[in-house]
Amino acid sequence: MKHAASMAVGLFLKEGSLAESNRELGYFHFLEHMLFKDSETRTSKEIASEIERVGGVLNGSTSREYTQYYVVAIKDKAELAFDILSDMIFRPLFREEDIKIEKGVVIEEMRSYEDAPDDFVYDYYFRNIFKKSPYGRDIIGTKESVTGITRKSIRKFYEKHYFPANMVLSVSGNLKWEEVIKLAEKYFFFENPKGKVSSPVVIKAPKKSFTKHLEKRKIEQFNVMLGASGVPRDFRSVTVIQLLSTILGGGMASRLFQNIREKEGLCYSIYCFPSFYRTTGLFSISCATSREKANRCITLVLEELRAIVRDGFLAKELEDAKSNQLGGMAIGYELPENRMNNIGLQDIYFGKYYPLQARMDALKSVTLPELNAMAKKIFSVPNLHLSCVGDMKDSEFQKIPTKL
Questions:
Q1: Which residues have C-beta within 8 Å of that of residue 81, sequence separation ≥ 6?
Q2: How far apart are CA 30 and CA 363, in angstroms?
Q3: pTM of the prediction?
Q4: Which end of the chain, N or C, is surrounded by fewer C-beta atoms within 10 Å?
């Protein structure tokens, strides 16, 4: 990226919470926290201050199918970025006192989610629609599983999953290939422990539960998650569904925003988003409204979806969605952090890299019949799933329609 003053380096582990056993719930997330603690050569404060001193960013995240750690820094500090990332990931101390402190931190993180209805409803929704499948488990784990973590158990878990063949190193910025290779060979090792072969856990596609669930809370707003079917992650499906999502609920010009917020004034925000995994997927619609307006709001969403399945989208809508996605993609590609993420995730899921032009060509090639067929596929369920958090009587909640 010859224009970029910054660079980004990320290490992706090809596993996330789906690879946990029932006794290890929340271990990947907890381990992510622990790798920001003291290493063999630096304290946690030194790790943070060395990056922040040069205006850089150090962060990590845990998902269901991968875990990520990354550094964004000015190009001249590329070696420092490699050094810090390598140090924290490959030389953690796992000190007893750090584990004890971090248990408390994660428990507080859980409480913050539980106290925020707009965060809680998302996890509540996944638990309900995926029922007992690993896909429905909270990534953060449970209070019991986190408090039960020991130095021995977390180190054993680390050694089981963190090895080179199970990782992708992704780099983006105004750097030469030879420079990247030199830094990688200096700070990362590539030899696997004997017998270690990468084999990410693949969970059989779960049967989704298109039922209704209410978590009663004495709060002002009524938080809503609606769920339709989805598809597993593949390059073409991602391309088509992102266009569909843009038209339906991807911004202020979308159908849902215009018809439910602008025309009816039923909510402050309403949007939809797809979720893609190796063997399954979801298509979700989220909004927050008042208890009195909830039935009307959801009724209008259903009417919109029925109209799409019945009549399809307009050619102009597809044209505008393509333009939106092409513009957003081009803007995103100017940022090393976005490009680094894109490289890593494409390698994990597709085993190859689709450059900007290939992704743009794929977007342009989507036809209206293809888009409409995808809409019929994901909205083919008899009823939408409904998970809500708010102050409503059961009798009132049961009257809310979900039938498509």
A1: 7, 8, 9, 51, 56, 71, 72, 73
A2: 38
A3: 0.95
A4: C
